[in-house]
């Protein structure tokens, strides 16, 4: 199928805790599109490695786990091998483990097919680090969502406290900075805006304002496409 005939994709990439999850989810809901939380796939692969006693540096073994990841997404819940791991997978230590295995090229390759399979009618909102650069380079609208470290640490703090997890601001800022550095410095699919991506700084925007802006960009992209 040619790129143009494929179902439309809106890619939303950006650093940790930039609000991508909330915003991407709401955009998908408004449009009636599918939603891919690609970070969850890295988190689930990391969790699977931890459960199977696989070292986070064992690239071959983790890629093998990723290739047959027994995951399921259903009504806001995430399952790994039939267990509901919705809350467990969001824990900060799993996020850190995910960012460690995400630097491994074979692990990234192992997860490509699964990510691409989310592209179904009538369209997809894909949230991650390399959605617009690597996985869906033909996305109709590419967005790079960002925010200051302080704004992101505040959001992550609230998220963790709401879920009843312990959180400490100082540790969170350090963790975010380390994770940003690891995501941007890696050679395999480093975090960076895709060519043509709209850069949206959400430090001073509410989630709904960001959603509104992305929906307007998408509507414009559709108009531009039909004018071709
Ligand atoms: O919630 P947060 O933004 O912290 O993380 P996430 O989106 O759940 O992703 C967890 C980790 O997976 C990130 O820190 C990235 O290192 C990695 N990741 C990636 O490398 N590529 C993606 N497309 C998505 C996530």
Q: How would you describe this protein?
A:
With about 230 residues, the protein is α/β, with parallel strands linked by helices. The chain has one domain (about 10-215): Rossmann fold, CATH 3.40.50. Helix content is about 50%, strand content about 15%. It is built from ten helices and eight strands. The chain has helices spanning about 20-30, 40-50, 60-65, 90-100, 105-110, 110-115, 130-135, 150-160, 170-185, 205-225, and strands at about 10-15, 35, 70-75, 75-80, 85, 125-130, 140-145, 200. The strands form two sheets. A five-stranded parallel sheet has the order 2-6-1-7-8. It has a three-stranded antiparallel sheet with strand order 3-4-5, covered by helices on one side. Helix 2 packs across helix 4. It is globular, with a radius of gyration of 17 Å. The two termini are about 20 Å apart. The model has no long low-confidence stretch (mean pLDDT about 95). The structure holds cytidine-5'-diphosphate. Cytidine-5'-diphosphate binds near residues 38, 43, 95 and 179.
């Amino acid at each position: 199928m040619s790129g143009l005939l494929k179902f439309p994709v809106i890619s939303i990439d950006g650093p940790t805790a930039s609000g991508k999850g909330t915003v991407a989810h709401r955009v998908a809901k408004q449009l009636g599109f599918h939603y891919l939380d690609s970070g969850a796939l890295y988190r689930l692969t990391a969790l699977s490695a931890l459960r199977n006693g696989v070292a986070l540096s064992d690239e071959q073994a983790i890629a093998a786990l990723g290739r047959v990841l027994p995951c399921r997404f259903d009504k806001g819940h995430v399952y790994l091998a039939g267990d509901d791991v919705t809350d467990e997978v969001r824990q900060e230590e799993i996020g850190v483990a995910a960012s460690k295995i995400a630097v491994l090229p074979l692990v990234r390759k192992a997860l490509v097919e699964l990510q691409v399979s989310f592209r179904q009618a009538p369209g997809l909102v894909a949230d991650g680090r390399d959605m617009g650069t690597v996985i869906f380079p033909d996305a109709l609208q590419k967005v790079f969502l960002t925010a200051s470290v302080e704004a992101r640490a505040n959001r992550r703090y609230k998220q963790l406290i709401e879920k009843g997890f312990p959180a400490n601001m100082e540790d969170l800022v350090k963790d975010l900075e380390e994770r940003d550095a690891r995501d941007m410095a890696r050679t395999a699919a480093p975090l960076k805006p895709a060519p043509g991506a709209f850069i949206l700084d959400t430090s001073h925007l509410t989630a709904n304002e960001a959603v509104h802006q992305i929906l307007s960009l998408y509507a414009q992209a559709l108009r531009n496409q039909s004018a071709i």
